[in-house]
Each structure stands twice: as C-alpha cells, then as structure tokens.
Amino acid sequence: MPSPVITTLTQAVARRGSDPLLTWYDPATSARTELSVRTFANWVDKTANLLRELDAADTAVVGAVSVSHPGHWMSLVWPLAAWQAGCRYTTMPSGEAQVMVTGPHNPQPFPVLTTIACSLHPLGLPLAGLPDGVLDFSSEALAQPDLHLANRVDPDAAAWVDAERVISHRNLLADPISERIVVLARTLARTPWQTLSQAVLRPLAGGGSAVVVDGPAEQSALDRIAASEHATMA
Length: 234
Description:
The chain has 234 residues and is an alpha/beta fold. It has helices at 4-16, 37-53, 64-68, 73-84, 137-142, 192-206, 219-229, and strands spanning 20-26, 31-36, 60-63, 88-90, 97-102, 114-117, 134-136, 158-161, 166-168, 180-184, 209-213, 232-233.
C-alpha cells in the first residue's frame, strides 16, 4: 500500500482540494506563497514522477535542502514526493541514495548522486547558469506529467532518517492539528523534522493548515501575520 501520508494527501485533495494547506512567508522580502491542498499535491506528483524518470524510485533521497532551508515550501514538498515514489528521505548521505537535493547557493554536483538544485523562489521560478551535472528542480519537475502514481511501501519501513531519529511511514501522521497555525521555521529549536511535522504532516492529518514564517521576524510582525491569516501561534 502507499505511504499513509500519501493516502491522506490524496483523500484531502478529494475532500478539501481548494483549501490552503501551506502558506509561506519570507519576512525579509514580504514574499507570500499560498499552496492549496491540490497545488501542493500536484508538486508532490510531479516531483515523484521526476524521481521515477531518474530511476530513483524505491531508493533514498538525501535532502540537504531540508537542512539549509527547512521552512521553504520547496523543501517541504520533497519528503512527501520521496515517500510517494517509495523512497526513504534522509538528511544524511546514504549508501542507498541516488538523488541529492540542494538549495540554490553555489550548487555543485555531488559524487555518484544525481544532484538537483531548488531555486527557493517564492513562485518556483527556475535557476539559470547551473554547472554541468546539476539539474534545476523547477524546470525538471514542471516538465513531468500530473499523473498521480504511488509506490507501495512497508508501513514499518523507515520513511524519515536524520541524526536523531528514524521514523516509519506508520508514525508520520502523529498528533493531528485541525486549526490554522503559524510555524516559525528558523527558531533555534526547530529542526527540519519538527518544521515538516508542524508545517505539513500534523495539519494534513487533522484537516488544518499552516502559515510558515521562513526567517527572523519581530513579534509585532508575527502578530500581524497571525491576525491577517486567521491563525494561531504553534
């Protein structure tokens, strides 16, 4: 069967596809990007299909971008795409991995692995002038079909691996959230896993949504964001 996360996302598309799932803010530039459940799922579909095109399904994806930019919406798409393609998602190099996903800053081809760089543009615009051996995420993903395919996984197999935890597919959707919450992605206590869980997995499980503030912000600015988005602080 598919990962329970992917089953839940598919059900959410059917039930509340036009509702917001993830709203991303960059306080430094005032950029705002809102992804509905359906739009988020579409990026997951396209990214999972890219992994299949690269013959990386059922392997492992190393998400360096989740470490460098844990709160960006592109970073938050990648783990679910990996799980949809039957992959394990890890923040550390892995012998099973075939793909390395990085941010936009001086991306270099990683030995052995296919390297994909994310622009982290608010609207997902592509990167230009990448070195040989580095693929642009936006260009490659948007060229993929919208076809929804979900690989089977063992529910007890590792889905997320980092230096502190190994989480199985069965345990990804703990502690559901039904309300709309503000998530501070770059506080010192916020790890990539905590950001993903608060920003996507818990709201997805409970029918809620998240407003991710991706960068330092004064409390007054956070209060304004929370009020304008009708959200409460996580």
